[in-house]
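no rush on this but wanted to send it before i forget. theres a chain ive been looking at and ive put its sequence and its fold in C-alpha cell form underneath. please have a look and point out which stretches look like helix strand or loop to you. thanks a lot i owe you, the record is right below:
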Amino acid sequence: MNMIWGKWHHLYKMTLQWLAEQWSTKQGLTQQWGKVIRWTGMVFLASVLSGCSAELDEYQSQSPAFDLFGYFEGETRAWGMVQDYTNKQTRRFYVSLTGTVKGDTLVLDEQFVYDDGEKDTRVWTIERLPDGRYRGKADYIIGVALGQEKGNALRWQYDFLLKYGEGSEMTVSFDDWLYRQDAHHVFNLTSIRKLGIEVATVTLFFRKETF
C-alpha cells in the first residue's frame, strides 16, 4: 500500500508542478481551469493526509517540556538546510537568535547567513495566550502564526510570502514541528506546501547558548 501510494503521490506532485509551469506562461491554462485544478488538488490531498498526519496530543507525556519562552530567551544558535520535493539539498544556512521576554511576549531576533553569502533578518513577536497557545507575527508572515505545545513538542502553522527570482513572490504554507531533546538542543522539521502539496522541507538543529 505504501509503495503504491508513493508512486501515485510522486506522479501527482509532478503533474501539479507541470501545470503550475504551464500556468506561468502565456500559453498556459485558462483562469477557470486553473481554479478547478487547485480545488481538485487540495481536496484530494486533504482526504489522503487527514489520516496520516501526526497529532500534537501524542507528545503530551514526553519530556522535557518544550517551554517556548524559556528555551528561546537569551542566545541560541541554529544550523539548517532546505530540500526540494525530490529531497535534494538546495540551501544551507546558519542562524543567530536573540530572545527577549517581557511578561507574555517574546521578541525573537533571527539573523540568517546562507551558504551563498546572502543574509536575512526576521524578527518575531510572539504572544502567549491565556489558553496556553501562542500567536506570532513577523516579516513576510501573512496574518498571524498560531502555535501550541504539548510535552516536548511545539507546532507552528502559518502562511508565508516567499520571494524568489527577480521580483517574483508566492504564498506558501509552513507547518513547523519542533522537538526539545534536552536543556540545550531542539530539532525542527518544517513542511512547506503550495496548493496542499509539499514542495520543500526545512531541517534545523538549535543549540541554546545562554540560560
